[in-house]
Amino acid sequence: MATSSGKSKSPAVELEIDDKVVRISNPDRIYFPETGATKLDLVEYYLSVGDGIVNSLYERPCMLHRFPTGLSGEKVHQKRVPNGAPPWMNTVRVHFPRYNRNADELCVTELAHVIWAVQMSTVEFHPWNTRSTGVEFPDEWRIDLDPMPDCGFDRVRRVAHVAHEVLDDLGATGWPKTSGGKGLHIYVRIAPDYGFKDVRRAALAFAREVERRAPSEVTTTWWRKDRDPAALFVDYNQNARDHTIASAYSVRGNPRGTVSTPITWDEIDDADPQDFTMRTVPARFAELGDLHAGMDDAVFDISRLLEWAERDETEGVTDPGGDD
């Protein structure tokens, strides 16, 4: 990675990415004060995992988490592609019924799109679980293992294995990754045959089955104030419309510059999420490639989960957040 000169202003750098040229202004601006990593370091990180980040974001509406002056400054959650985008930038229009508004969100189809977003101070990429060809029909079911404040990572590991067991029983292939924080995510490719409400219902039915198998460790309680602070929440609501989580290979906006990193099931017992950073992941990616590359070849039909959901609803198990 490039080294920082400590200056706030530095000569711009022009990068040729395939057939596009992206101009990086202020490349030596420090974005991560704890490590000294600069804007250009962030660019070089995303270049090093290019195939992985493009695969994770490909044709998905994407919210940008921007830090215009680095992590020490303001964080901006941006749905719309920033002004000044070159004509070759790709977007997809999404509608927000609550506000009756539209937004033209970033829709990555090549690496230059990612690097231009980084030039515009994007650190984190948060894609939808749908594609531009069917914005209302998810093709990605997301299992978010979200530890409460007093829940240690050992519990996260144990629950991940329970989730893996349930997925195996369903005949579904799960693709785990670190969150870049204290939890784990598991993605499952699904056929885009159902809307957000049904995918969320399926996700809740799965979460309840995990809770049944590990009742002392897992909660699906909707209200945060009512959850055991030592429990792990299986956050099924990440499958609701316009809810997003950091993509695979996305850097997180924290002092260490941790990365939401694909891992294998065999790595879960030994993996420490804090070890996966923008400094360490490039070498791992060069050695292992994109561990999520085969996801599109393992499509799961959620109809059985919807049967579980119907069973739960018939038994009077309600979802207090169902209208979210």
Layout of helices and strands, plus pairs?
Blueprint: E1 13-17, E2 20-24, E3 30-32, E4 37-38, H1 39-48, H2 50-57, E5 61-66, E6 76-78, E7 91-96, E8 101-107, H3 111-119, E9 122-127, E10 140-147, H4 153-170, E11 175-178, E12 184-189, H5 196-213, E13 218-219, E14 232-234, H6 281-288, H7 303-314
Parallel strand pairs: 13-14
Antiparallel strand pairs: 1-2, 3-4, 5-6, 5-8, 5-9, 7-8, 10-12, 10-14, 11-12
Describe the structure.
The protein is α+β, with helices and mostly antiparallel strands and 324 residues long. The chain is 26% helix and 20% strand. The chain has 7 helices and 14 strands. Strands 5, 6, 7, 8 and 9 form a 5-stranded antiparallel beta sheet that branches. The protein has a 5-stranded mixed beta sheet with strand order 11-12-10-14-13. A hairpin with a 4-residue loop joins strand 3 and strand 4. Helix 1 packs antiparallel against helix 3. The N terminus is likely disordered.
